[in-house]
């Protein structure tokens, strides 16, 4: 699949993850589970864009600009249209991706070229800042893993699977502590697995990384800016509708 095809597929899965206001809890958990590759795939495609673009600084600025515009849009729409806090839109994956690409920039331009100690400090700083964005620090770390191992996908996959295995073990212990498995309630177990599936983040994108054929795909103004418009717009529409009918 081309990068463009992957973006459209992930956009579809993203919508399924965000319509939880309108569907039963079981379907919410299921859609949340199957949409776990979305953030990882967009992180992967952002790394690919960083590798191939000739204007890295411009790409980074565009991501930050999109993040700032969405942040301001969230504030305006939340307070003037949605008004109900339970339906407020706080998402802004753009800032997470921008920080991830910034970390790659520091890796290339500071760590590798000038000052490894300063590079480490700057990269660590971007990881910490990632904690305050939608994707969290995990997106920044994943993008570093993907980039550093861009010529060794086997090593990349192994690292991601090991991190995921650690998270899964922690998830199982959480199940045991909550006595969920012992209760034998299949519905509650499935819902809990769906809700905890964020822990599969590092491994969820691996199959789609291998589906990528290394080609950008159709390159038009529409395909270039589609996600920048679609991502905030669909969240705002869902939030507005939910605030009026739910």
Features:
246 residues, mainly alpha, 13 helices, 0% strand
Describe the structure.
It is built from 13 helices and no strands. It has helices at 3-18, 25-34, 37-52, 56-82, 93-111, 116-130, 136-148, 153-178, 180-183, 186-196, 201-204, 206-211, 221-245. Helix content is 78%, strand content 0%. The longest helix is centred in the N-terminal third of the chain and has 27 residues, at 56-82. The model has no long low-confidence stretch (mean pLDDT 90). α3 (37-52) crosses α7 (136-148), α5 runs antiparallel to α6 (116-130) and α7 packs antiparallel against α8 (153-178). The protein has one domain. With 246 residues, it is an all-alpha fold.
């Amino acid at each position: 699949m081309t990068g463009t095809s992957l973006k459209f597929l992930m956009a579809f899965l993203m919508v399924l993850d965000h319509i939880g206001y309108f569907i039963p809890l079981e379907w919410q958990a299921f859609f949340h589970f199957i949409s776990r590759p979305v953030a990882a795939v967009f992180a992967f495609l952002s790394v690919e864009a960083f590798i191939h673009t000739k204007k890295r600084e411009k790409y980074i600025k565009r991501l930050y600009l999109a993040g700032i515009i969405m942040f301001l849009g969230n504030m305006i729409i939340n307070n003037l249209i949605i008004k109900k806090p339970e339906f407020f839109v706080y998402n802004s994956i753009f800032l997470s991706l921008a920080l991830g690409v910034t970390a790659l920039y520091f890796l290339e331009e500071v760590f590798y070229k000038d000052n490894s100690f300063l590079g480490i400090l700057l990269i660590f700083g971007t990881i910490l800042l990632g904690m305050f964005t939608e994707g969290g620090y995990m997106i920044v770390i994943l993008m570093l893993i993907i980039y550093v191992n861009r010529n060794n996908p086997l090593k990349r996959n192994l690292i991601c699977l090991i991190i995921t295995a650690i998270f899964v073990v922690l998830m199982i212990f959480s199940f045991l502590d909550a006595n969920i498995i012992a209760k034998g309630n299949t519905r509650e177990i499935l819902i809990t697995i769906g809700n905890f599936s964020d822990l599969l983040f590092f491994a969820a994108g691996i199959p789609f990384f291998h589906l990528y054929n290394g080609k950008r795909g159709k390159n038009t103004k529409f395909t270039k800016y589609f996600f920048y418009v679609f991502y905030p717009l669909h969240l705002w529409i869902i939030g507005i509708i939910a605030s009026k009918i739910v």
